[in-house]
Design a protein that fits this description.
The chain is of the alpha+beta class and 112 residues long. The chain has one domain (20-111). It has four helices and three strands; from the N terminus they run βααααββ. It has helices spanning 26-36, 43-56, 58-64, 73-93, and strands at residues 20-24, 97-101, 107-111. It has a three-stranded antiparallel sheet with strand order 1-2-3. Mean pLDDT is 81; it is low at 1-16.
Length: 112
């Protein structure tokens, strides 16, 4: 058994994830918001629209955050709300978003 309890012959989740740290500067966060068409929209509606775009288009978000390309769609969907909320907040405040990928939590997202 490996660290998450799967048999060695099964590929574990941790074998498929690219570990790393990514920083999205405020300009990138603003570009995501503008591209999504939610600039000037109320925060809850903007978060909802960004979240649905993240869930639908893993390839597009993978161009911005390369490690997300290799992640399962279920994982991206799970963290889409947190990522969307962080992007909207960061764009509004002129801050960046830090994303740490790895163990023990798959994604840690924070606004800096």
């Amino acid at each position: 058994m490996d660290r998450i309890g799967l048999a060695k012959d099964n590929k574990s989740l941790y074998d498929t994830i690219e570990y790393g740290y990514y920083y999205l500067p405020s300009e990138v966060c603003k570009n995501i918001i503008i591209t999504a068409g939610v600039s000037g929209v109320q925060t809850p509606k903007a978060v909802k629209k960004i979240r649905s775009k993240i869930k639908r288009s893993r390839r597009e978000i993978g161009e911005i955050i390369p490690a997300l390309r290799s992640m399962d769609q279920d994982i991206i969907s799970y963290y889409a709300g947190e990522l969307a909320e962080s992007l909207v907040y960061a764009a509004g405040k002129g801050k960046g978003v830090e994303i740490a990928i790895g163990y023990p939590k798959i994604l840690v997202i924070s606004v800096n």
